[in-house]
Each structure stands twice: as structure tokens, then as C-alpha cells.
């Protein structure tokens, strides 16, 4: 069961990260990682080719209030995003009665392979279960995205089924694997 969520006043801290709402002052950091080829494409959107594109999407994040900025403490900058969106499991008979959100994330290529996304995902899940009353999280990855697969496995998600995703901005279909974590 979907519900409205406002992340604006939520801050979650881990050993290396601060997860918080985006601000307009994050624009340059956002553009720095979103403009690198291969980063957005792993999540179904084209890398940003102008700062104006990043500004427009940042405005959407601010309006929707459902995406955390992933702020790296040591480097004092935003290095990615983690969103809590309408869950695909809301359409599944077995799960549709559960209060749920879907997790999506993107991380700067410079920070891949350091365990930062599992750190962020686990922290958000704990907060969601303990503070927001979320009962289940769903998540998915494109079949060829092995980095996301490892994140999902590290976070304890259970594989549910295969699916197909149409990335409108890339005008491309992706086979994906879908997972669930129920409290």
C-alpha cells in the first residue's frame, strides 16, 4: 500500500554518510556525478549533458520530497541520491496490503565499490521500519547491473521475480530482477 512520504525534514547519519533532503546548493555536486556517462544509464536515464538538466531534475526532487541526497562526510559533498518511491509490490496480491516503498539509488562513479550504497540502503531501511512504519521495501536492478545486484544481496532482499522496464528517457527496454524485504 503506497503512502505519501515527505523526506524534507529527515536526516539519517551513518559512519561515512549523511542522508538528507537535497537543497538548491547541491546543484554543482549533483551535476558532477549525473553528467558522467554510465552513471544514469545504470538506472534508466541518460547522463546529464547540461547543468540546466540537472537543475530541472533537482527542482523535481525538491518538489516531490522523496529523494535523499547522499552526502559524503569526509569529502564534504553530495555523491549520489537515494529515493523512496511508489513500490511495484503495490500491484502484487501477496504484498499490496503492506505499507511499502521502492528504493532507487545512484552513486558517483568515483565512489563505486566502497560499500557506500549498502550502508545508505541499510540505514534508510532501518529508519523506515523503526520510524515510518514501513512494512516492506521493494527494489530492482537491470540484469546486467551487477553492482546493484551485490548491493541488494548485501542488504538481505529476497528475489521475487523477473520483470521488464521501459526507460522512457533512453527509449529502451531492460530486463530486470525484482526483490522484496519484508519486516
Structure notes:
By secondary structure, this protein is an alpha+beta fold. The protein has a domain at 12-139: Aminopeptidase (3-Layer(aba) Sandwich). It contains 4 helices and 8 strands. It has an 8-stranded mixed β-sheet with strand order 1-2-3-4-5-6-8-7, with helices on both faces. Strand 5 (100-107), helix 3 and strand 6 form a beta-alpha-beta unit. The chain is globular, with a radius of gyration of 15 Å. The relative contact order is 0.17. The model has no long low-confidence stretch (mean pLDDT 96).
Question: What's this model, at a glance?
Answer:
The protein is α+β, with helices and mostly antiparallel strands.
Question: Which structural traits does this protein have?
Answer:
183 residues, alpha+beta, Aminopeptidase, 26% helix
Q: Rg from C-alpha positions?
A: 15 Å
- Which residue ranges are poorly predicted, with pLDDT under 50 across at least 5 consecutive positions? none
Mean pLDDT: 96
Give the C-level CATH assignment of the domain at 12-139.
Alpha Beta
Instruction: Figure out the total of helices.
Output: 4
CATH architecture assignment of the domain at 12-139: 3-Layer(aba) Sandwich
Q: Helicity, in percent? A: 25-40%
Question: How does the SSE layout of this entry go?
Answer:
Elements (H helix, E strand, L loop, with lengths): L11 E2 L3 E5 L5 H8 L16 H14 L2 E6 L4 E9 L14 E8 L8 H16 L4 E7 L3 H9 L3 E10 L4 E11 L1
Parallel strand pairs: 5-6
Antiparallel strand pairs: 1-2, 2-3, 3-4, 4-5, 6-8, 7-8
